[in-house]
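EI: anyone free to look at a 67-residue chain?
SC: sure, send it
EI:
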Amino acid sequence: MAKAKTQELRDMAADAVATKVEELEANLFNMRFQASMGKLENTSLLRTARKDIARAKTVLKQKAAAV
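SC: here you go
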């Protein structure tokens, strides 16, 4: 699953990846807020979201280094 997401990110333009990072970070913030309130049922989503953000930032940095 992760490889498919990474390939999708690599196929996107750099500005689209940056937008995706912002979207993922906003989603993580909302999930953290829900977790603190005790309303987040699946807490493993926090870990998954953090890894998705790291994956997207890595691809973004690779694109910046390639230019």
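EI: The radius of gyration is 13 Å.
SC: 👍
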